[in-house]
Amino acid sequence: MDALLEDLTALLGPGAVLADPSEREKYETGWRYGKGRARVVARPSTTAEVSAFMAYCHGKGLRVIVQGANTGLVGASVPDEGGAMAVLSLERLNRRMEIDPTDRTALVDGGVLLSALNGALAEHGLHFPVDLGADPQIGGMIATNTGGTRLLRYGDVRRNLLGLEVVLADGTVVDTLSALRKNNTGLDWKQLFTGTSGLYGVVTGAVLQVAPLPRQRAVALVALSGGGAVLDLLRSLEGGLFEVFTAYEVISGEALAAVFRHQETLRNPFDEVPPYTALVELASSLPESSLDLASLLEEALGAHMEAHGEGVLDARFGKPAEFWAIRHHVSESLRGEGRVLAFDIAVPRSGLPAFTEAVKAWLGREHPFMRVCDFGHWGDGGTHLNLVWREADSPLPAAELVPRVQRKVYDLAVLEHRGSYSAEHGVGPHNQHYHDLYTPPAVKAAGAALRAHFDPEGLLGITRLW
Amino acid sequence: MDALLEDLTALLGPGAVLADPSEREKYETGWRYGKGRARVVARPSTTAEVSAFMAYCHGKGLRVIVQGANTGLVGASVPDEGGAMAVLSLERLNRRMEIDPTDRTALVDGGVLLSALNGALAEHGLHFPVDLGADPQIGGMIATNTGGTRLLRYGDVRRNLLGLEVVLADGTVVDTLSALRKNNTGLDWKQLFTGTSGLYGVVTGAVLQVAPLPRQRAVALVALSGGGAVLDLLRSLEGGLFEVFTAYEVISGEALAAVFRHQETLRNPFDEVPPYTALVELASSLPESSLDLASLLEEALGAHMEAHGEGVLDARFGKPAEFWAIRHHVSESLRGEGRVLAFDIAVPRSGLPAFTEAVKAWLGREHPFMRVCDFGHWGDGGTHLNLVWREADSPLPAAELVPRVQRKVYDLAVLEHRGSYSAEHGVGPHNQHYHDLYTPPAVKAAGAALRAHFDPEGLLGITRLW
């Protein structure tokens, strides 16, 4: 055994240090992107152990990548290919989980899984409402600032984060784990560690604001004639149902048709596939005896159709599980259609139709074999603008085609529509090039100043925010 | 006319530069604290003019204090007594006000008044829901991160800020004025300028998320037996009425009695003055035909009284204007009782009764002539713990008594109850000493690093966040 492994084993205990290549593999491979090689995987189980580990690495000049559940989509939680980085896995840092129903908060270790937290919260009639497809750790959710399908109502992680515990690159523990909703005492320290991929410190603990579990939900699928009609309906629903309006997920006809081609158990509830379909969800903590959400939703849609009759083609009610299943099978179904180039774009939501049309127009001229199969969180301005094509139809190899199309689509989003090349997923190696291209110089300079302050040796992480 | 005034007049136009002492006075005096002397008052009316002004001051080494509507409560918007600082007033920077009902956003200049914005929004059935007693400018609200009485439902300014335009100390304009709800591209730049008193840059523009105006409100005053009963009711209401629960303002018996002693037009709706009174407000964008808030509130209180009968002494419904008037006259009424030492404290809300009791116990031993007249935003953990005494009863002069009591009350809040010495108002000269005492060294160090980065000459502001 080499000296590093001996030292770390002495520091963290034998079960905490993985050096065998077969044991390391899952920590070296990202969920969607990223594949590297680790010098060692360390799995401390307390904040004090994380601190000791960081101080040790700092002393030795050992580079560290922090890893939660490794469910991120931009490759920001796996080591590079050099084989010299240590993976700091927080999977055993999951002892603290203190729920306070009066504060409506949960104090958790950074390595606690979202599912574990929600399981414990459910016993108190509570949940952490940042709703995702994956099952990440809370520390990773903070470092990524995850959003999800119900951001419209509950906000992102940043919005629900009250207190933080971080370990800095030199091992210093900074404990601001307080359950304060109001604390205007200058710089809001926790913001520096939210959405910054663990580059300025390791999130080892957090106090989260949580919410009561809804007592009822109502869901509708609404067939719409186009992007303008999608926005008209959004505006009507927000104006009339604001506080119970929890999701507005939109699927284009191209994407919806793919779902029904590839998912045998799912059926089109409409007679045809409409240009756009909106999944509308309402939820409330009020009982049905006070507020009948299902009737409310039918009435609101009826009133909207009277005012904007031409835009709404059809509507179906009820069946939340079935309607959400359609939404959740879009990505998988598109992969059955051919090559897919996925995007995670946001623009101001009023600009979604014009942005989508601009992409279609450009593709029609330049790469007419690519189909735009867009879907996403229109309530938040988010669009997973997936492009689908058959390899055989492309005169260019994918390795040439993909970067060319990415660049143009991102240019349209960022430069022409004041949008974002990464709405939800973060930067990471996958988006590094676009961060470098589009980030204002002043923002990069602040990122560099913070890096120089927190980690002058540059030991933490593999993303560059400067 | 001296060279400075000549230069600034050439840069900004004659109406923009005030040098006469009588004209300067209102810019030199804080709302509650702070009185200084300005070298000059400059009032640019565009971002380009702010930039030119800052570049000029940077070149000359002239110190600048940024001032909005000057309604802050910690003296952070007035110059020091040296007479060498320029006041940068944004009162004429109020041209842009672009409301987009589909985005549900407003793009505004930093100098736009909250009342002006809400007036324009009302025409679209919208409002900016950060609800305050004063009428500040939007830029000042961002630099202070104001909270107010409906934070429980709508959050603070930070929560509703989507995009920002700032002018840095050297005159550089950084425009991130985008209406994005999702934008996970690393460091969230706008957080550096939110709640930091204009120390890192001048907020010249913002994109705010706004909300539909409620269609109905229901209000109750509930008489409660003590702090535990206040928290029990809070928990019941949040669990059952989450999304329509917009305010929970609590007034102690000492404070309420003062209101009825000093406000002739206001009457105690109860037979006696209860130990605590909670003002409960519900609001909804749903029409009464779908949701009857008044009945809902009565039912919810009835159900709570069945479960926790001993804690609820009485309840009165309706009369929103009258009930809010009682709440809004607390501060003024206490000033009629004698000397007042006001606080702006937050603790985790479950700790409010124990914290309040700890203050009472200490005062009972050390300064028994001081009465605790607490009231505040219990839903957010906020308490304006006002102490009232008759000067004649104190063996110590106020100049000795006040700092001694402040220090102990803040120690109890911050050190014993993980609370904040400034829940809403910010740091400023008024709280500088307590910032220096209680801020963790790592947070100060980050504040210093950002100052060194943004403003190495230290020209902006008079608060120190390091």
- Counting H and I runs of at least 4 residues, what is the number of helices of chain A? 15
- Shape annotation of chain A: globular
**How widely separated are the two ends of chain A?**
38 Å
CATH class of the largest domain in chain A: Alpha Beta
Oligomer: homodimer
Which labels suit this protein?
FAD-bd_PCMH (chains A, B), globular, 36% helix, 4 domains, homodimer, eight-stranded antiparallel sheet, Uridine Diphospho-n-acetylenolpyruvylglucosamine Reductase, domain 3
Walk me through this protein's architecture.
Two copies of one chain form a homodimer. The first copy, chain A, is of the alpha+beta class and 466 residues long. Chain A has four domains: 3-89, Uridine Diphospho-n-acetylenolpyruvylglucosamine Reductase, domain 2 (2-Layer Sandwich), CATH 3.30.43; 97-212, Uridine Diphospho-n-acetylenolpyruvylglucosamine Reductase, domain 3 (2-Layer Sandwich); 216-330, Alpha-Beta Plaits (2-Layer Sandwich); 338-438, Alpha-Beta Plaits (2-Layer Sandwich), CATH 3.30.70.2740. Chain A is 36% helix and 21% strand. Chain A is built from 15 helices and 19 strands. The first copy, chain A, has helices spanning 3-12, 21-28, 47-60, 114-122, 138-144, 151-154, 227-241, 253-262, 293-307, 320-328, 330-335, 352-366, 398-417, 428-438, 441-454, and strands spanning 17-18, 38-42, 64-67, 85-89, 97-100, 105-109, 126-127, 161-167, 173-176, 202-209, 211-212, 216-224, 245-252, 276-284, 312-317, 339-341, 345-346, 371-376, 382-389. In chain A, strands 12, 13, 14, 15, 16, 17, 18 and 19 form an eight-stranded antiparallel β-sheet that branches. The mean pLDDT of chain A is 96. At the A-B interface, strand 9, strand 11, helix 7, helix 14 and helix 15 of A face strand 9, strand 11, helix 7, helix 9 and helix 14 of B. Chains A, B: It comes from Mesoterricola silvestris. Chains A, B: Keywords: FAD, Flavoprotein, Oxidoreductase. Chains A, B: It holds the Pfam family FAD_binding_4. Chains A, B: Its cofactor is FAD. Chains A, B: This is Lactate dehydrogenase.
